């Protein structure tokens, strides 16, 4: 049984709870609302309510969905910056940005839609489930239509930090190459630096500037500035350079732990070999161009 919780803001005072929930549940679960109400599965501030309930501002709403199970994830996202149309938030490691086969409600976009007034929020770009950091959303469909076609002009600078295995022989490096999936690869989602002797699918140019920030116990913290936004760009390039991201199941250890996770799952000794339960990659800074004015959004520096 899943607890699908939300909090109503003051602007929802006087709104029918039924209307509030229809916007925040999947279509299948929205159709179950009469049954959920009749069985006492919907409460407001810990009190069971009926289908004709009207919201007061600041209430905590809980919907219990019998028979529905979600994978446990870190749901502690937070708002970093916003204006009238856009919302920049922090996504934790292991929180999927959108629905998966295991999670419908414990995803970033579902949490934002339930826990803010922006029930129609849209993702403007994506981060891998295991990648943490700054991600940009549109508050509604109109803002999404306005900004998504202009995303390259809107997002002027993207900086990531990656902990990698080993110590590079360089302090800085600009890497520009073609990336592509490889025909016949055992790991379908994996991308490779294009090699003329192999058969690749639709190579795409990629460009990243790498800079060493610090080294600790045989590992290195690298700043990665993206000039293009290709699938798995940073992870694939760093692996090609001989320094896979710590905890990377696809690009480290020849993909052994990715395949093992699919076939039989991973145990504590596997995570110890990987060095982390998730890959150590984080989007730390995003600079926007809002009508010609730069807006820098950065994660707080951790001591």
TrEMBL record:
What InterPro entries does the database record attribute to this sequence?
A: PsdUridine_synth_cat_dom_sf, PsdUridine_synth_RluA-like_CS, PsdUridine_synth_RsuA/RluA, RluA_PseudoU_synthase
**Residues annotated as transmembrane:** none
The family classification in the record reads: Belongs to the pseudouridine synthase RluA family.
Q: Which UniProt keywords apply?
A: Isomerase
Keyword Kinase in the entry? The reply is no
Q: Record's superkingdom?
A: Bacteria
Q: Which CDD domains match?
A: PseudoU_synth_RluA_like (cd02869)
**This chain belongs to which protein, by name?**
RluA family pseudouridine synthase
Q: Signal peptide location in the record?
A: none
Q: Where does the record place the Pseudouridine synthase RsuA/RluA-like domain?
A: 86-239
Query: Which organism does this sequence originate in?
Result: Amphritea atlantica
